[in-house]
Each structure stands twice: as C-alpha cells, then as structure tokens.
Fold this sequence. Notes:
Elements: H1 2-13, H2 19-28, H3 55-61, H4 84-89, H5 109-120, H6 126-133, E1 141-142, E2 149-150, E3 154-155, E4 164-166, E5 175-176, H7 178-194, E6 205-207, E7 235-238, H8 259-271, E8 277-282, H9 284-293, H10 299-303, E9 307-309, E10 317-321
Parallel strand pairs: 4-6, 8-9
Antiparallel strand pairs: 1-2, 3-5, 7-10, 8-10
Helix pairs in contact: 6-7, 8-9
Bound molecules: zinc ion.
Amino acid sequence: MKHFAITAGMAVLSLWLPQEVRAARQATLPEFIPANPYSEFYVDEAASQTDAITIDFCAEWNPEFPWNGHRCCRQPKSKKKMHWRERRRGGTVCYAERFKANFCEEMTADQRGYSDQVASGEIPDILSFLDVEMTRSRGQAYCTVNNGFLAFGRRLIPTDENRIKLRFPGRCVEFGTDPMIGMLEWLGRRVNSGYSAPEVKGVHLLVGDISSPKGGCLAGRNGLRGHASHTSGQDVDLGFISAYENKESPNSYVKHFDGKPNWWFMKQVFRNPYACVKVVFLDRTHIRKLAKAARGDEDWQKFGRFIRHSKGHHNHFHIRIGDGPGPAGCQVDAHPELETEDSVPMEVELPDDVDANRLPAGKILKTS
Ligand SMILES: [Zn+2]
C-alpha cells in the first residue's frame, strides 16, 4: 500500500509531463486498489470496475485528491488518530478547502451544459434521456459512501413535471449518479400524478442534500462534516410528504409526519425502476406511524425491514441506493441493519433559515 501511495504521488507530478511520457508512465502504474475501505460492506460495486480507473481519473474527479495524499480514495481515520474535537463530534472533519457556502465552482462544463440543455428544451424528457445514458454503464460512484467521490455526476433539475423543490437551490449539492437522478425524477412525477387534483397541486417533493458536483466530503457546521455519507451521489435526504388541500408543502424540513401519504411514498421509493434502495433511515417514532398506516398491506413485509431507525432523522428521510435498478436491499441476502451513518451520530445540516448563497465561508452556524 505504501508503495502504491508513493507511485500515485509520482503519477500526479507526471500530469505536467508531455503526453508520450505520461502515457508510458501510465502503463507502468499498479492496478487500482481502493485504499483501505471502511469495510467490505461499504465498498461500492462500481469501485470494483477498476479497469477504467487510473490515478489520472482520480485526480480529475476526486475533489479531495490534492489533500488526501493523492489517493484515489480518502482513508478513514482511526478513532485513535482523531483530534479530540473530532472524537467528541463522533466524526472526522472535512478538509478545510471543502468548507464553502456552495460547491457550484466544482461543476464541470458537461454538467453546466446538461443544465442548459434541460432549461432550453434541447433535452425534452429527462427520463428518456436517462434511460439511454444508463445503458452506457460507466462507473459513477467510487470508494465508499462515507469516503467516496462521484464521477460524471448528474444534476437534479426541478421542473413543473417532477414537482421537485430543492431545499438549498444555490448550494449545488443536488448531484448524484444517473440511477439516483432517475429515481428522484420518477418519484417527483409519481407525486405529480398522485396529487393531480387542483386542490392538492401544492404538494411537492422537497429534496435536501445529495452530493456536490464531484462528490466528496460535504462540510457542514464550522468545517465539520455535515454528513457521514453523501460523498458518492448515492445518498439523498428528502422532506416528508405533506399533503393538505389548498396548502403548499413546506420548503424546509418539518417534524410533522403523516403515516398514510408517507407510506404511499415509501412504496414508490422501493418500487422505482431506476435504483435499488439499500436502506431508508428514519426516526423510530415515524417508523411506528408508517407501520400503523401499512397495517394489512403485505408490502410492509417486503419493505418494512429496510426502513431503519437512525438518530437525527426526525425531520427527513435519508435514502441510500445501489448501482442500478433492483429489489429492496439490492441483493438477495441484504443486510440493511449493517448500513449505518457510521461515525457521525447525526446529520448536522445548515439550518433552514440560512440563505446558503449569502453564507460567508468560515461562519459558525448553529443548527436548528
Ligand atoms: Zn442524509
């Protein structure tokens, strides 16, 4: 591993060398090995598609590459090596360079182009576009959900058809893998068709953080990690479905939870044709309400065990997906109980009353 890191460092220096020299050196690079993943369970299947991965690829896509010792995957710190503040917080901090009001400058030309194409109508239907894109089967999520990055990240774009509202539209944290964006677009359209009557037109799907344009650590309060995961475009936070006649759904997370509409929504989540769902994190008081609403519904047997209690999820769902479509759990012998938010005990997010666009970098935020 040590040898690999040294060679990797040299490879980065070689980025400034002429093309032929680089190509020759590239050929001598050792095969990509994910650097000490959290646990086997966390390694994304995409990370095993190693043939396309080179140090150049990691340098281009992993936004933490300059600071993580020029490794493809950030190495998790052991508890022993953590600063006492990190230990007290229960998690490592993001690199200082990741603490910023928004991540928009990390967008690639392709990502900007895609947004323009959707806005101008050049891509008239996002889902049929994604259907084609997903056949390209290129890896997008690398390393682990807690210490990973996102290549060719797709932006989620709110439209009238998908009834999606972004919690922080100016923060550029609505990027995910194609299956993630396909799932959310499909879910938004289900909300649109499920609540089509004029008196419930105000019902929308509130989307919180997914990942930044290239993934990586999402810094929250005071430079600390805002989330344990959300680094590889495979985790999304969603507001609860709030369906009342002649009332707009709230634009921020609320603790109020109605069992019936949210059980309907959970069934859509697990049945979406774009991404298998590994786990949904939710506070146990809300899970009880879901179970009650699902009484007599055989789908509870199928999906219920994948909805798991996790501290800090009293006002939003946290959904983690796999690499593509599939059954709940993404594999036959799924163990949703092994999916955790890992070392960060709760999601420390920006409070709702903050205008993320006007947030000065370095400002200490109090959570609501
Ligand atoms: Zn989350």
